[in-house]
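Incident log, support desk, overnight shift.

02:14 A customer reports that sequence design results differ from what the structure should imply. Their input is reproduced verbatim below. On-call engineer (initials T.W.) acknowledged and began investigating.
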């Protein structure tokens, strides 16, 4: 009888312990959700080209706004953009989204190239654009009439930079690619393995005609140095995401630049967490939150189940970044495993919201 009572007591004690742990786990999850929602956010690098019924509520739940970043890509028909869709999106949800226009070097040999580009940008600024994006077309894709790749420091672009400086419109610069683009694609754990597998046209290792990584980065640095009055947001950590020391060197040298880590969090997770945390703390006023998340097809082309899965994936993606930034929990991201940065509330508030609000003069 006594043994039975002891066993019963042990079972009750175990159940109570398990219940307490479950309760604590639930409390921790609730606390994390409250903290996550309390901090305002702006995703400065978003590509929600196609509207979703769930998107407005999703952004409001995350206490978040987004900058819809246009990209100009030349194809066999002409220059393909997302500007019209973004403009419509902002008209539908003016409190949630801001606009970023774009520039491409196609036609740079034409005598009126700069003037026509300025006229287009002027019109789009009047329509609400708060920033202009330049893409890796500069340096890696677009060529002039002589067959040379157009680098971002090309003097024929200077009137455009002067115009943007005068209008106090910043530039988002995605110049170059991660250094892995110039290396063999032989490691599935490479955080960019999937991208270059799906987009071999940007895997420079396969295209020896593309200028070297060093040449493109040098041209980018020359452009920054030649335009100290131009505010520049170096997207994807300035294509130097594999080494925060390289990023820090530029931040120290060029006071007019800022950075954001969209689609390069895997590179950060692959580096020493203490070192990355120190980087965020030192440059806490110049690092902005960006993800590169977006929608790539119309809602009408997806089933209800696909849309639900898409929303869940988006939730998990934003939450994974929150875990990496705000906790010391272990996690995996793009094949890289490490512990989170556990950034302070002060740093998180600047990173997630205030730095972008100041950069785009939203207040």
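02:41 Re-run completed on a clean worker. Output:
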């Amino acid at each position: 009888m006594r043994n039975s009572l002891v066993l019963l007591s042990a079972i009750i004690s175990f159940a109570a312990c398990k219940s307490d742990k479950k309760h604590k786990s639930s409390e921790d999850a609730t606390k994390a959700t409250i903290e996550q929602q309390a901090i305002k956010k702006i995703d400065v690098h978003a590509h929600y080209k196609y509207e979703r019924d769930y998107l407005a509520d999703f952004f409001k739940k995350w206490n978040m706004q987004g900058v819809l970043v246009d990209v100009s890509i030349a194809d066999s028909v002409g220059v393909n953009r997302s500007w019209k869709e973004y403009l419509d999106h902002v008209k539908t949800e003016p409190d949630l989204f801001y606009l970023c226009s774009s520039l491409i070097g196609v036609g740079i040999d034409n005598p009126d190239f700069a003037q026509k580009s300025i006229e287009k940008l002027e019109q789009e600024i009047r329509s609400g654009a708060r920033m202009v994006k330049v893409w890796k077309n500069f340096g890696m894709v677009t060529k002039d009439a002589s067959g040379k790749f157009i680098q971002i420091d090309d003097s024929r672009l200077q009137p455009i930079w002067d115009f943007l400086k005068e209008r106090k419109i910043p530039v988002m610069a995605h110049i170059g690619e991660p250094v892995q683009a110039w290396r063999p694609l032989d490691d599935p754990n490479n955080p960019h393995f999937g991208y270059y597998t799906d987009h071999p046209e940007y895997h420079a290792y396969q295209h020896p005609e593309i200028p070297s990584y060093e040449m493109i980065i040098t041209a980018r640095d020359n452009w920054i140095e030649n335009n100290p009055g131009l505010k520049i947001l170096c997207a994807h950590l300035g294509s130097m995401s594999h080494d925060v020391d390289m990023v820090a060197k530029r931040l120290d040298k060029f006071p007019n630049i800022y950075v954001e880590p969209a689609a390069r969090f895997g590179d950060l997770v692959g580096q020493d967490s203490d070192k990355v945390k120190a980087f965020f703390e030192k440059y806490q006023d110049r690092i902005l939150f960006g993800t590169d998340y977006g929608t790539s097809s119309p809602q009408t082309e997806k089933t209800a189940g696909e849309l639900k899965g898409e929303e869940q994936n988006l939730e998990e993606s934003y939450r994974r970044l929150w875990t990496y930034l705000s906790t010391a929990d272990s996690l995996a991201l793009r094949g890289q495993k490490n512990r989170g940065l556990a950034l302070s509330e002060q740093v998180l508030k600047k990173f997630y919201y205030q730095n972008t609000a100041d950069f785009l003069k939203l207040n």
